[in-house]
């Protein structure tokens, strides 16, 4: 049944193509789109006669009034074109409400989680990608991430976007779960007729980080305009950018903030964290750090020369030594991405009562990025290993029988991901007018994403262990693996004794390529995410039999069925723990939800003194989840315009987000982290006031004496193994959201619209998954150690060291954010000069706090990275005749380099001049020239003044690519 239903969408589309033809010489025309929401309309007054009836973002009500109570910020295709946008997420992250979104920059190198390379994911209000609902034409799209509901924006065709609506605030009552912080709705072009083509290429000022984009769209109306078929193809290709391509991030020149080796507490002018270059990972080397005394410190380099220990930097680092540079682990700044997107949209109007529509999309994205190499600590190498240099061999203590080698294996290749994602989405449906006051719509959406992740340069554990244990074959005198001579000398799971090829750990790049190939493993992980959505609604009004003083009552009733499933299958080697990568298990799960919903619009008053408009509306939805049971969401809106030019609006809602598949059913897997233990004496003052007493309690429980606690230290430089898993006991999280604002559209300033809205979102029993370091800190930063976080940490008896931990989602947190958003649109004409369009979106972030567990103190992240207190996006467009010019600015205020908890706990934590990251100032300009109505050439410069990341960062507050240039053309026939 599933296959036949999804094929039906293709059949409808194919039939539409079969009955139409693209006639040569057809003039290009784009049907005029309905106006966007009120915040995007600069010249439309509050009410207009004879407006086109549409359904806008934020409501399923069919209304003639675009002045919705919910604040919506919209961006049209003209702005995207003027910006030369080929990656929508890069553009949207310049907006205040979406600044925390995850772009390709964030999902590359070691910053990308497993399977995340190349993804583009939206994050409204910095409350998480899983709390942001992404829609296409008001309907859901299948996720791009296994176990999640997050949509990969790479799959949305830039060339077909008519506008982007950003609705902030709870929208669960309208669209269902996941819209806790709001909705981003991509409205695609309809009724396209003719042929359009676009090509664009760009490159950075350094001659790298190039990108190429091309789009081709065919459209034709048929049957006297009753039908339309549109076929669009889009291609995008972006180059990989490595740290070595930026000198400031290469070698000893990279600067980071590290512990001051000369720090003395409470000494004026002496700070705990200082900027340093040439910082290295202590006692670890690319060519091998060799310890012959077994005391931990290396004595020799891999080539046999004495090891230079340099100057110790507290925290496991050094300077001026033979250790591996921290910058060597910087890896990729941007991934390589190639994307193909094909869209086929059709509609046919049988009659006013039956209008058929269908959509089909296929998107494929390939992403490639390299991260860190494999690394090893204190590998025991027996003294009969023939690769040991003579100077080292002479220093070996016979009682030890060998040496210990710590090594960063760059010569075995950097590990990375080569991911192919394929997304198929189909929509079939029908709508129509049952009467002048009654409209219906029914649709079915099917989506499927398949992900194939080829993990490159992983390592076979058994082969590596066998290959490093090299000896001389007494029969031939040649170097071979010990296991080839004695099959009992090791474990052979992925190979047979006799097949082993030795590798040389003493020096860099000195191994036989055959040995390197022998230990390398290429594994493949596969995921499949599937979505089914059936939606039916009936909307209309009561004008035939009942009206309020302001007009007839509008209503919507409907139902929805949705089924989501996800399956992740790691490579067989990973399942058995036979590679360097984490041991992973098959993870799968599904849920379905049955929902009923309704909306009501009550126009109380119209055209009365001090009540030009007075409306109240509401929505309610009940959902029954197979995973967590029933949940009810609701929303109430109000709008009052005392006069035509000013309108007050407000909304209050309760939103719900049910836990996703990964949070519920994620299989237990292995993870690693390096802990900066919060209970170290130097860290006791860097958390909540409860930290010292709680650390005293946990270390006492581990059997440490008062003297041991006072001198507690963790000298390990190794990653600690732990477990990550889902939690089937999770319950839905609930959000209470309210907004209040005013819209000004003064009749005496034609073309001006100003919207100012206050928003407040409080999320209760939020699902929170902290990383391992946060887990350790939250354990001791709560009122007592009787909390879920301490229960997930295991400390070794007698030493107090963290030796195990479990990371899993829990319903323990409360999140709260509030602020003021300003949206200004002004379109005006200056005689003999030209037409101008100004758009300003600003945000004041008043609060962003997290309560990590019941009873804990609120933890504010206001002003931290990607959470600035003040933000603004400005765009000014100018057109005169065939010439066009556009300027835009993405700005935000300075942000904290460290959390307030850290700096408040120690005024000497960092020099005040480094306490904040600098402001973001990214200026973009572009120009265009229309040869005629069919051909336009354009070009532009992004990051005009080449703002660079701040000291100590490689990505913040601006992208590392720097100033870039692009040029292209658009043709319409």
Offer a concise description of the structure.
The protein is mainly β and 973 residues long.
Could you describe the 3D structure shown?
With about 950 residues, the chain is mainly beta. Among the domains are: about 245-335 and about 370-420 and about 460-525, no CATH class; about 665-730 and about 770-805, no CATH class. Helix content is about 10%, strand content about 45%. It has a 22-stranded antiparallel β-barrel. The longest helix has 17 residues, at about 1-20. The protein is globular and about 100 Å long. The two termini are about 40 Å apart. Residues about 1-55 have low confidence and may be disordered.
The gyration radius over C-alpha positions equals 31 Å
| Main sheet makeup | 22 strands, antiparallel, barrel
Q: Average pLDDT across residues?
A: 90
Helix count from the secondary structure assignment? 14
In whole angstroms, the N-to-C terminal distance is 41 Å
Oligomeric category: single chain
> How many strand segments?
53
Task: State the shape.
Answer: globular
Strand content: over 45%
Proportion in helices:
under 10%
Pfam family, one: Plug
Family: Belongs to the TonB-dependent receptor family.
Organism: Novosphingobium sediminis
Keywords: Cell outer membrane, Membrane, Receptor, Signal, TonB box, Transmembrane, Transmembrane beta strand, Transport
């Amino acid at each position: 049944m599933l296959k036949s239903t999804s094929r039906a969408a293709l059949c409808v589309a194919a039939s539409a193509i079969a009955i139409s033809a693209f006639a040569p010489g057809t003039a290009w025309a784009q049907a005029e789109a309905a106006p966007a929401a009120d915040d995007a309309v600069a010249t439309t007054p509050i009410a207009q006669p004879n407006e086109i009836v549409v359904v806008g973002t934020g409501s399923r009500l069919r209304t003639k009034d675009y002045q919705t109570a919910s604040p919506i910020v919209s961006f049209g295709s003209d702005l995207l074109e003027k910006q030369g946008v080929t990656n929508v997420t890069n553009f949207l992250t310049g907006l205040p409400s979406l600044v925390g979104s995850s772009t390709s920059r964030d999902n590359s190198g070691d910053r990308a989680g497993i399977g995340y390379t190349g993804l583009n994911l939206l994050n409204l209000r910095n409350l998480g990608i899983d709390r942001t609902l992404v829609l296409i034409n008001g309907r859901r799209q299948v996720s791009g991430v296994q176990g999640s509901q997050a949509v990969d924006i790479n799959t949305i065709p830039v060339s077909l976007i008519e506008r982007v609506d950003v609705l902030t605030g709870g929208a669960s009552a309208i669209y269902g779960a996941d819209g806790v912080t709001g909705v981003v709705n991509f409205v695609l072009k309809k009724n396209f007729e003719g042929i359009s083509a676009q090509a664009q290429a760009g490159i950075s000022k350094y001659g790298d980080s190039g990108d190429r984009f091309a789009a081709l769209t065919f459209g034709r109306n048929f049957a006297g305009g009753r039908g339309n078929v549109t076929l669009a193809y889009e291609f995008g290709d972006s180059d990989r950018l490595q740290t070595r391509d930026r000198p400031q991030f290469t070698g000893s020149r990279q600067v980071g903030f590290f512990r001051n080796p000369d720090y003395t507490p409470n000494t004026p002018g002496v700070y705990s964290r200082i900027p340093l270059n040439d910082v290295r990972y202590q006692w670890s080397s690319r060519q091998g750090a060799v310890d012959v005394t077994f005391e931990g410190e290396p004595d020799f380099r891999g080539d046999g020369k004495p090891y230079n220990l340099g100057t110790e930097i507290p925290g496991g680092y050094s300077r001026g030594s033979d250790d591996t540079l921290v910058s060597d682990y910087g890896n990729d700044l941007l991934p390589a991405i190639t994307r193909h997107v094909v869209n086929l949209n059709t509609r046919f109007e049988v009659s006013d009562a039956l209008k058929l529509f269908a959509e089909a999309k296929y998107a494929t994205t390939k992403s490639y990025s390299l991260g860190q190499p494999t690394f090893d600590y204190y590998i025991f190498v027996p003294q009969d290993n023939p690769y040991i240099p003579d100077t080292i061999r002479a220093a070996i203590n016979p009682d030890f029988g060998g040496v210990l080698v710590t090594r960063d294996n760059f010569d075995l290749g950097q590990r990375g991901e080569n991911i192919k994602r394929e997304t198929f989405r189909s929509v079939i449906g029908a709508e129509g007018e049952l009467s002048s006051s009654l409209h219906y719509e029914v649709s079915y959406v099917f989506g499927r994403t398949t992900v194939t992740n080829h993990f490159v340069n992983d390592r076979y554990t058994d082969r590596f262990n066998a290959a490093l244990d090299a000896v001389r074959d007494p029969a031939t005198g040649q170097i071979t693996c010990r296991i080839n001579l004695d099959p009992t000398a090791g474990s052979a799971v992925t190979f047979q004794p006799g097949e082993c090829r030795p590798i040389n750990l003493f020096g860099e790049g000195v191994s036989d390529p055959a040995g390197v190939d022998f230990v390398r493993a290429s594994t493949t992980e596969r995921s499949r995410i599937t979505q089914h959505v059936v939606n039916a609604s009936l909307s209309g009004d009561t004008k035939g039999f009942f009206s309020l003083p302001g007009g007839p009552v509008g209503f919507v009733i409907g139902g929805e069925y949705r089924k989501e499933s996800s399956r992740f299958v790691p490579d067989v080697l990973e399942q058995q723990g036979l590679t360097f990568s984490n041991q992973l298990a098959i993870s799968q799960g599904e849920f379905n939800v049955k929902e009923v919903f309704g909306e009501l619009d009550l126009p109380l008053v119209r055209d009365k003194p001090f009540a030009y408009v007075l409306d109240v509306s509401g929505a309610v939805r009940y959902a029954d989840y197979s995973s967590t049971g029933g949940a009810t969401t609701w929303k109430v809106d109000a709008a009052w315009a005392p006069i035509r030019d000013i309108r007050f609006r407000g909304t209050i809602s309760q939103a719900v987000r049910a836990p996703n598949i990964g949070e519920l059913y994620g299989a237990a897997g292995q993870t690693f982290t390096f802990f900066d233990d919060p209970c170290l004496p130097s860290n006791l003052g860097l958390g909540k006031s409860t930290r010292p007493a709680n650390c005293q309690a946990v270390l006492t429980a581990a059997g440490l004496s008062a003297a041991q606690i006072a001198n507690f230290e963790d000298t390990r430089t190794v990653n600690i193994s732990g477990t990550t898993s889902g939690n089937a006991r999770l319950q839905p999280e609930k959000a209470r959201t309210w907004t209040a604002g005013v819209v000004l559209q003064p009749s005496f300033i034609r073309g001006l619209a100003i919207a100012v809205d206050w928003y407040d979102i409080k999320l209760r029993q939020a699902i929170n998954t902290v990383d391992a370091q946060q887990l350790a800190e939250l354990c001791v930063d709560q009122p007592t150690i009787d909390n879920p976080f301490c229960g997930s940490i295991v400390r070794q008896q007698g030493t107090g060291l963290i030796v195990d931990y479990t990371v899993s989602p829990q319903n323990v947190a409360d999140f709260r954010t509030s602020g003021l958003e300003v949206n200004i649109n002004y379109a005006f004409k200056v005689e003999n000069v030209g037409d101008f369009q100004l758009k300003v979106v600003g945000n004041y972030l008043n609060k962003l706090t997290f309560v990590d567990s019941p009873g804990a103190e609120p933890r504010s992240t206001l002003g931290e990275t990607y959470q600035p207190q003040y933000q603004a996006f400005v765009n000014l467009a100018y057109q005169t005749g065939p010439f066009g010019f556009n300027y835009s600015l993405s700005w935000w205020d300075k942000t904290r380099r460290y959390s307030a908890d850290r700096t408040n706990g120690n005024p000497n934590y960092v020099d005040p001049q480094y306490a904040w990251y600098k402001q973001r100032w990214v200026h973009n300009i572009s120009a265009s020239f229309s040869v005629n109505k069919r051909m336009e050439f354009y070009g532009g410069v992004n990051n005009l003044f080449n703002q660079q990341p701040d000291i100590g960062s490689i990505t913040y507050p601006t992208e590392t690519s720097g100033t870039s240039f692009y040029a292209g053309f658009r043709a319409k026939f």
